[in-house]
Amino acid sequence: SITLKSVSKEYRLGQTTVHALRNVSLEITQGEFVALVGPSGSGKSTALQLMGALDHPSSGEVWVDDQAVNQLNDRELARLRRDRIGFIFQSFNLIPVLSVFGNVELPLVLKKLPKQERQEKVQAMLERVGLADRAQHKTEELSGGQRQRVAIARALITTPSIVLSDEPTANLDSKTGEEILDLMQRLNQQDRVTLLFATHDPNIVARAKRVVSILDGQIRDG
Amino acid sequence: SITLKSVSKEYRLGQTTVHALRNVSLEITQGEFVALVGPSGSGKSTALQLMGALDHPSSGEVWVDDQAVNQLNDRELARLRRDRIGFIFQSFNLIPVLSVFGNVELPLVLKKLPKQERQEKVQAMLERVGLADRAQHKTEELSGGQRQRVAIARALITTPSIVLSDEPTANLDSKTGEEILDLMQRLNQQDRVTLLFATHDPNIVARAKRVVSILDGQIRDG
Ligand SMILES: Nc1ncnc2c1ncn2[C@@H]1O[C@H](COP(=O)(O)OP(=O)(O)OP(=O)(O)O)[C@@H](O)[C@H]1O
Ligand SMILES: Nc1ncnc2c1ncn2[C@@H]1O[C@H](COP(=O)(O)OP(=O)(O)OP(=O)(O)O)[C@@H](O)[C@H]1O
Ligand SMILES: [Mg+2]
Ligand SMILES: [Mg+2]
Fold first, then answer.
1. CB neighbour list of residue B92: distance below 8 Å, 6 or more residues apart
2. Which chain A residue lies closest to B138 (C-alpha atoms)?
3. Which residues of chain A have pLDDT under 70?
4. Max alpha carbon distance in chain A (Å)?
5. What is the pLDDT of residues B40-72, one digit of tens each?
6. Which residue stretches of chain B are H helix?
7. Which residues pair with A35 in a beta bridge?
8. CA gap B39, B51 in Å, rounded
9. B40/A172 touch (CB, cutoff 8 Å), yes or no
10. Average pLDDT for B120-124
């Protein structure tokens, strides 16, 4: 499970303070399929980044599986991000100097999997997202939707038990998007992988078992 | 008008050749509102970049208003991109060292508009896309949809007669997307601005007067 307990997040910029999240409490239990929806700038990406332990709240606590994230040491934090949580970024965050294959392989290299096993897993994943014929290309040589699929493949390659997806279908046509959603929904139904999507996509909202609304940094319904 | 005449575009990468566009002919006449749709990787962004004179075809010709783009000298080409065409990039291409205001102002600086006039135009445009309170922020301090709106504002600030938009609503919730589309549709209806969208968004397709399909680099219907 992932829980935000009375979490606030502020960004201070010169004289202004942006209240990205205001006293947000939200619990996602293991195996849930949740869509987080709300207007542009309402706090979705910020909420996901805190839940993925990629940033700290200004106040309140983040808990992952009954562990307070702020109590974890660096090694435990790294293991959490590397093994338990897969994160799909809204702006992809791919590594330009690596190929498609290299980008998707990287989490497995960090886990010290042997080369043969990495090869098989990456090959299988690239086929699943329709990019097997692009394995050797650099990410700048891809279309927007192809880059998005590299980001998705990389997040899923470690078979995480929680997948936090920030607008994963924004750059995909509906058919490709449906294929990606089928793939992720199967993980939820067969392996009880927890899925949390920050999204504007009605197809994701329709498939989700629960929809949480956010507005101006506050949860409206949960 | 913008016309592709038997245009092909190949990318050569080591041993592979990617045929991004294959013998594409497409004419968009002044004042049209066209949606270009097709699967991820089918050639939409490539087609738009050629029409915006941001890249050269491998073969065939691009014409803008009865002028062959490959016949223009550098000064004429710069004037075309600066004055006639507004381009909204799929990955925004904002300038990180400039503020929101600075990014939107830049095309007016290049046109040598006086400071007072730039100030008024940028302020009005930022209000129209809902970012007036973010004028002084750097673009890395914005949400994905806020950055997208900066890219939109920058493309429209020079009141171009042709707007080429690559997935302009991908990161926007439906309400914000509708507001942007209302704004652009008004330009088309009142000022006969030509609108060409590469898009997966059904809301844009519904509003467009003509829908062109592309698949594997070839136009299916025009
Ligand atoms: N610089 C490049 N080098 C090599 N191949 C490229 C390059 N840019 C694009 N391509 C390839 O050309 C094809 C068309 O790309 P394009 O970006 O036009 O697709 P698209 O229709 O815009 O896709 P999407 O909907 O995913 O944005 C794709 O297969 C892509 O991988
Ligand atoms: N690094 C930052 N510095 C300052 N403000 C920030 C920063 N990152 C985000 N913000 C602000 O915090 C608020 C929430 O941003 P967030 O990215 O979470 O929104 P979002 O719901 O994901 O929006 P979108 O749908 O446009 O992606 C926004 O108003 C944004 O401008
Ligand atoms: Mg976001
Ligand atoms: Mg594209």
1. B147, B148, B150, B151
2. A13
3. 222
4. 54
5. 999 999 999 999 999 999 999 999 988 999 999
6. 44-51, 74-79, 100-110, 115-128, 144-156, 174-191, 202-207
7. A197, A211
8. 19
9. yes
10. 98
